[in-house]
Design goal:
The chain has about 450 residues and is an alpha/beta fold. It has helices at about 35-55, 70-80, 85-100, 115-130, 160-165, 200-215, 225-240, 275, 280-290, 300-315, 335-345, 350-365, 370-380, 390-405, 410-425, 430-440, and strands spanning about 1-5, 10-15, 20-25, 60-65, 135, 140, 180-185, 195-200, 215-225, 245-255, 255-260, 260, 300, 445-450, 450-455.
Length: about 450
């Protein structure tokens, strides 16, 4: 399996540190607002990596943090007259609901920044003791020029960074490039050796990663917008504090764009996941995202989502047979093609093409095709289970159909029997009225050798 390492800018063979155990860290949300399509792209991408690593037989520990102490959270708390904890708890719950709606698996570990303050303070103390950081008036800063590798991940030479650096008024830094490890904050802060304050954003991930995964981890992933300064700063402070390499493989997903601009809250051009799910289901959103390679930008449009919906419909309408849990899918050519595509830096567009091959074979009644389709599609996070109606919902459908046709059907079996009788008697008007009436209610009838069945569209 080969992955593109952002640090070396090369495609590299993936080799875990410890046998088949994989330690994977993904930068999680800052919980102060609705998650948007950009977040969906990021977390679906790494959900697929998590699923695929497990599919390959790796023992994966997936850690994704929650930033619940941040300027944006504090600002929202003040605006709404709430405590920061009330704001972060509410939006964390909303984020969790959105991830579930997208069919993303929960990480194995989901640490909160405010619950890891002791580890952050400990790491800052280590950096000060080693001469990599300094305290000034309750703030603590990292000495960027003490770390020779600074700028390597983002491919920015130190002199180029220097030319763009600025010092804010009132900030007492030794150097404009130095970044905050701890910020003085007597209103919303926590006790520390440097007075009341709170952690800088970057130290949070370094401390949580070290606590839950160890000093050196296999994979660190996130959006391309985090490369600089967040991930660059993580590397600097982690390697200086720990005295060893921080991450073996850095992975970054591309932006979601609208009209060629990155989707973001600051630009005001974002679509929330909740809004998107009103018009498209989770399979469609996932298909749209996986059609493109994860490192490339994705241009959002309704046309692209509609095209994705058509692709999902094609898969869902594959002729179904019971899933054979004992089938050895590794013997199928499509399995090998799927693995070859995914092993090539998660080439999901090629993997989707394999699913379509299997769909065609399932429709031709080729033995085992649907089982292989089901298992590979599940590995990409698709749900092939068709939506069902509760008994109450089904009764409401019957009532609506009766009202529309002026009929008195008691259940769906009676509807199907009436249509069958009309067709046998060549009473096409009645048969068509039933078909059209059900179609308006989102139900389609399918005729087969074993009789007629109904399904949701």
């Amino acid at each position: 399996m080969k992955l593109h390492n952002s640090y070396t800018n090369k495609l590299e063979e993936f080799k875990p540190i410890d046998g088949n155990k994989v330690k994977m860290y993904v930068c999680g949300p800052t919980v102060y607002d609705n998650a948007h399509l950009g977040h969906a792209r990021c977390y679906i991408t790494w959900d697929v990596l998590y699923r695929y690593l497990k599919f390959k037989g790796y023992d994966v520990t997936y850690c994704r943090n929650v930033t619940d102490v941040d300027d944006k959270i504090l600002k929202k708390a003040e605006t709404e007259g709430k405590t920061p904890e009330e704001v972060s708890t509410y939006w964390y719950n909303r984020f969790t609901e959105s991830m579930k709606a997208l069919n993303n698996l929960r990480p194995d570990i989901e640490p909160f920044a405010t619950k890891t303050l002791g580890e952050m303070i400990g790491m800052v103390k280590d950096l000060i003791a080693k001469g990599y950081a300094y305290e000034t008036n309750g703030d603590v800063y990292f000495r960027v020029k003490k770390f020779p590798g600074y700028g390597y991940l983002s491919k920015q030479p130190i002199d180029a960074l220097e030319s763009g650096a600025r010092v804010e008024v009132g900030v007492q830094k030794e150097d404009p490039l130095d970044f905050a490890l701890w910020k003085k904050d007597e209103k919303f802060g926590y006790k520390s050796p440097w007075g009341i304050g709170r952690p800088g954003w970057h130290i949070e991930c370094s401390a949580m990663s070290r606590k839950y995964l160890g000093k050196t981890i296999d994979i660190h992933a996130g959006g391309a917008d985090l490369i600089f300064p967040h991930h660059e700063n993580e590397i600097a402070q982690s390697e200086c504090a720990n005295g060893c390499k921080f991450v073996n493989y850095w992975l970054h997903n591309g932006f979601v764009t609208i009209n060629k601009e990155k989707m973001s809250k600051s630009l005001g051009n974002f679509l929330t996941i909740d809004d998107l799910l009103k018009n498209y289901d989770s399979n469609t959103i996932r298909f749209f995202i996986l059609t493109n390679h994860y490192r490339m930008p994705v241009e959002f449009s309704d046309e692209a989502l509609q095209s994705a919906a058509a692709g999902v419909k094609r898969m869902l309408n594959a002729k179904r047979t019971p899933v054979d849990e004992n089938l050895d899918i590794t013997k199928f050519d499509e399995y090998k093609e799927f693995v070859e595509a995914m092993d090539d830096d998660l080439n999901t567009s090629k993997a989707l093409a394999v699913l379509f091959e299997l769909t065609n074979k399932a429709n031709k009644d080729e033995e085992g095709a649907f089982t292989v389709l089901y298992k590979l599609a599940t590995t990409l996070g698709f749900t092939l289970e068709k939506q069902k109606l509760s008994e109450d919902e089904l009764q409401n459908v019957i009532k609506s159909l009766n009202a529309d046709l002026g009929a008195n059907y008691k259940d769906m079996n009676e509807v199907i029997a009436e249509r069958k009788k009309a067709r046998e008697e060549k009473n096409w008007a009645v048969a068509d009225n039933i078909r059209v009436g059900l179609d308006k209610l989102g139900i389609v009838l399918k005729d087969g050798k074993e009789g007629t069945v109904w399904e949701l569209k």
